[in-house]
Design brief:
Organism: Propionispira arboris
GO cellular component, one term: plasma membrane
Distance between the termini: 23 Å
Number of strands: 4
Structural class: alpha+beta
Pfam family, one: Bac_export_2
InterPro entries: T3SS_substrate_exporter, T3SS_substrate_exporter_C
Radius of gyration: 14 Å
Largest sheet: 4 strands, mixed
Keywords: Cell projection, Cilium, Flagellum
CATH class: Alpha Beta
């Protein structure tokens, strides 16, 4: 899950949800995106399912321009790899915190 932060001007919040299944996809794909209430629902769903949220306004804007259910293009691989690394670290921390 990636989203941008609200600015002091209260810009509309945006969120993009990514999914990557190594056995099914060659690259992560966008499974949901939206702004305003839709973005808030995406973030709430992430929170309710313990999905880490990575905040990056630039990446969110780039991903918002892409179609849902499509893999990300190669020029975004490096930026999305940072997201996947963040998610991995958060998952490892959560497993350690809960002794899993």
């Amino acid at each position: 899950m990636i989203n941008d932060e609200k600015s002091e001007k209260q810009e509309t919040i945006k969120a993009v949800a990514l999914q990557y299944r190594e056995d099914e996809n060659t690259a992560p794909k966008i499974i949901a995106k939206g702004k305003g209430n839709v973005a808030e629902n995406i973030l709430l769903t992430a929170q309710n399912n313990a999905v880490p949220v990575y905040k990056n306004k630039t990446l969110t804007a780039m991903l918002m321009a892409l179609e849902i259910d499509k893999e990300i293009p190669p020029d975004l691989y490096a930026m999305v790899a940072e997201v996947l690394a963040y998610v991995y670290r958060m998952d490892q921390k959560r497993m350690k915190d809960f002794n899993l």
